[in-house]
Design goal:
The complex is a heterodimer of chains A (343) and B (364).
Chain A: E1 17-27, E2 33-44, E3 49-53, H1 60-67, E4 75-80, E5 83-84, H2 90-97, E6 100-103, H3 117-127, H4 141-155, H5 160-163, H6 173-185, E7 191-195, H7 203-220, E8 223-227, H8 231-237, E9 240-245, E10 248-254, H9 255-260, H10 265-273, H11 313-317, E11 323-326, E12 329-331
Parallel strand pairs in A: 3-8, 3-9, 6-7, 7-8
Antiparallel strand pairs in A: 1-2, 1-4, 4-5, 9-10, 10-12, 11-12
Chain B: E1 10-21, E2 24-36, E3 41-45, H1 52-59, E4 68-76, E5 79-80, H2 86-89, E6 97-100, H3 104-107, H4 114-125, H5 130-143, H6 149-153, H7 162-174, E7 180-184, H8 192-209, E8 212-217, H9 220-224, E9 229-234, E10 237-243, H10 244-249, H11 254-261, H12 302-306, E11 312-313, E12 320-321, H13 330-342
Parallel strand pairs in B: 3-8, 3-9, 6-7, 7-8
Antiparallel strand pairs in B: 1-2, 1-4, 4-5, 9-10, 10-12, 11-12
Helix pairs in contact in B: 4-5, 4-7, 5-7, 7-8
The chains are: A alpha/beta (343), B alpha/beta (364).
Chain lengths: 343, 364
């Protein structure tokens, strides 16, 4: 299969989160099925940020939700810290899932408008009191939960005494995203999943949140799965990048390598589509015509072949497997770009 | 540049728009003036609440009269179009000047076929027959690059992709061959590859029809390669205005410069620390006296807190900025150096740790 294969996965004892051959399907009525994610495998090492990029409908958000088992994937495994989440259910799943926290695109809609900030941030600790360090349980637990809330609010640049009794509507979008981050951090998660966390924010606020996430990565040793459609944002924050197209992985590898020398024609086209900040440039050239095909009717073989300038018959027949082209960088393409100018 | 004696397609003079709110009048557009000639593109850049969309809607007369108040002059082809009787103005909006909006999903009528929506303006304004309008609609769909136009004419908006819907919106806007096209964040809702297609399309159509175009966006990189002139707005006012190339090589207003520097760039290696603009955009109902950007500005001096700088010239005649201490000038650099030495600006903004400190600050 294609855009598939697992040769790019690192040994499971070196990684924190490992996703193998993930398939997610939705029923779309009238007997039709959307295969939103088909055979996606990736891993994230402790302290690493993996960026997931692609256009809308490529399955990047679905992948992240499937990691959380929301909804459960049709097949595949999601191993966090050696435990396969797909085999768990009920209480066990709920408990281990506290280690996966998420922040969303629309920070204002993600906060309950009727609750006070302190209660919103604290809720996870009320449900899981044993997530506080052990010596803090018992009589002193309430005060210590408050300390924890104060600490995480402090890490996102807010003061509990000042904001604790306020409600979300009193805050701007950027501040609401800070609150969402504080809420996600309060249970000390193993992996923070960020689903387009800055795309609803203004440019000047976006930079503040990106810098904040970088600071928190240092402070808490955060491991992040970072989803965004903005390539510059993904490049700025990720250690490794995974490019997706129509439910499959095109290319995965170290950020700077992928951006400097894209090997998959789709990555190349994506990068060429970015508007340049240089007013001298901006030459009109057709980098990629048309829209992505419908997920109901995906092309055979390589799913990108209908828009790919390099496609041949082989691409229609055989699904390309992810294979290594250079150190740590894997590409699912029969005819990858090698950076040779003659091509 | 066009011959100076040619009538500009659009002249906007001292446009002011305020909204009546519970908290009093809110000045969304404050003294905006510019001139636009045919065949040229003006970029309007700003963050949310900067007044860029309110400016466009004021020009297009799209704001509800009950809650908003607009003053100033708008001349379309030399004709003052702000105070025309209804019978005349209805054949100007959408005919001589038309607009493309941000969200193609909600701008189209979901229960009417695409072909009829494109032909609607032609039937009403140009008094075309149904057949003629249908024929022209097909031509327009071809022009905006939609494959298989005969089939698409019969379809409903939900059957089209986001990019195709925006193409249909552009076809509707172009139906009556306007002299002025205002595109308000036309690609914000679209993917990056489709964004490029739509921007290229708008550019090509502007050239073919020698239209004047206003491209409104929050994204500096969208205006970089595609406009002749750029206006940067902040809190309802123009803070900087320059020919595009000039602006990108010599950013004078500290806001323009800071906005540019806060954008993550693909050319930078990953984990490059971004420069941030501290604080957040001001509340338009409680604007500070003096320059609205002063509380967030690293250059701010006592004068900035009491006096509002007007848009004035610089060494380049067409390059104007509203700042007492512009970046890249001796007085601006002196102001910045003095603030850095003191660790804070006249507005009390801390500059310790340079401009990359965390604080967005608390709500006031």
């Amino acid at each position: 299969m294609a855009g598939v294969g697992s040769s790019h996965l690192r040994p499971s004892d070196e990684v924190l989160l490992q996703v193998t051959d993930l398939h997610v399907e939705y029923s779309a009525g009238r007997g039709r099925t959307v295969r939103a994610v088909s055979g996606v495998s990736f891993d994230v090492a402790e302290g690493e940020t993996l960026g997931l990029v692609g256009e809308s409908g490529c399955g990047k958000s679905t992948t992240a939700h499937a990691v959380l088992q929301l909804p459960r994937p049709a097949s595949g495994t999601v191993v966090l810290d050696g435990v396969d989440l797909t085999t768990l259910g009920g209480e066990e799943l709920r408990r281990i899932r506290t280690g996966l926290q998420m922040i969303f695109q629309d920070p204002i809609a993600s906060l309950n408008p009727r609750r006070r900030v302190a209660d919103i941030v604290r809720e996870g600790l009320d449900i899981w009191p044993d997530h506080l360090p052990r010596d803090q349980q018992g009589a002193g637990a309430a005060a210590d939960a408050t300390d924890r809330v104060r600490a995480v609010l402090g890490s996102v640049g807010m003061d509990l005494d000042e904001v604790g009794t306020r409600r979300p509507h009193e805050f701007s979008g950027g501040q609401c995203q800070r609150l969402c981050i504080a809420r996600a951090l309060v249970l000390d998660p193993r992996v923070l999943i960020c689903d387009e966390p800055v795309s609803a924010l203004d440019v000047s606020i976006q930079a503040q949140i990106l810098n904040l996430l970088e600071d928190l990565k240092e402070e808490y040793g955060l491991t992040m799965l970072f989803i965004a459609h903005d390539l510059a944002v993904v490049k700025s924050i990720s250690d490794r990048v995974c490019v997706m197209y129509l439910g499959r992985i095109c290319e995965i590898g170290p950020t700077d390598t992928i951006f400097d020398l894209p090997a998959h024609p789709y990555t190349d086209a994506l990068l060429a589509s970015i508007p340049q900040l240089d007013p001298g440039g901006g030459a009109e050239e057709d980098v990629l015509a048309g829209d992505p095909p419908s997920p109901f009717d995906v092309p055979s073989g390589c799913r990108f072949r209908t828009r790919c300038p390099r496609a041949t018959e082989l691409c229609a027949e055989q699904v390309p497997e992810l294979s290594e082209v250079s150190g740590g960088r894997f590409v699912a393409c029969h005819f990858p770009l090698t950076g040779d100018p003659a091509q | 540049m066009n011959a100076p004696n040619e009538t500009p397609t659009l002249v906007v003079e001292d446009l002011c728009t305020s909204f009546a709110t519970e908290r009093g009048a809110l000045r969304a557009v404050d003294g905006v003036s510019f001139t636009l000639h045919s065949g040229r593109t003006l970029g309007v850049v700003g963050e949310s609440g900067s007044g860029k969309s309110a400016t466009a809607r004021s020009i297009m007369n799209l704001l509800p009269p009950g809650v908003s108040m607009t003053t100033g002059r708008v001349l379309l082809d030399g004709r003052d179009v702000r105070n025309l009787p209804r019978t005349e103005s209805r054949h100007i909006w959408g005919v001589e000047a038309s607009m493309v909006f941000q969200n193609p999903m909600t701008s189209l009528n979901p229960v009417i076929q695409v072909g009829r929506q494109i032909g609607e303006g032609l039937r009403y304004h140009r008094k075309m027959s149904r057949e003629a309008a249908g024929h022209r609609a097909r031509e327009l769909l071809e022009q905006v690059g939609i494959a298989d136009p005969d089939r698409r004419l019969q379809e409903y908006p939900h059957q089209l992709s986001g990019g195709m819907r925006q193409r249909v919106m552009i076809a509707i806007a172009l139906a009556c061959e306007p002299k002025l096209l205002i595109a308000d964040e036309p690609t914000t809702a679209l993917d990056v590859t489709v964004q490029k297609q739509i921007l290229d399309l708008l550019d090509r159509l502007r050239r073919q029809h020698s239209m004047a175009m206003i491209l409104i966006t929050h994204d500096l990189s969208v205006v970089a390669g595609r406009t002749d002139e750029v206006i940067v707005m902040y809190a309802g006012r123009i803070v900087e205005k320059a020919p595009t190339l000039q602006l990108f090589t010599k950013m004078r207003h500290p806001y323009t410069k800071a906005l540019f520097e806060s954008i993550p760039k693909v050319a930078q290696p990953s984990h490059t620390r971004l420069r941030i603009i501290q604080g957040r955009p001001p509340d338009l109902a409680t604007l500070p006296p003096g320059c609205a950007f002063a509380p967030r500005c690293a250059h701010a001096q006592p004068r900035c807190l009491s006096e509002n700088p007007s848009l004035s010239g610089s060494e380049h005649a067409a390059h104007r900025h509203a700042c007492f201490y512009p970046a890249g000038t001796p007085e601006g650099e002196r102001a910045l150096a003095a603030n850095r030495a003191a660790g804070r600006t006249a507005a009390g903004l801390s500059l310790v740790g340079d401009l990359t400190a965390v604080g967005e600050g608390m709500p006031s």
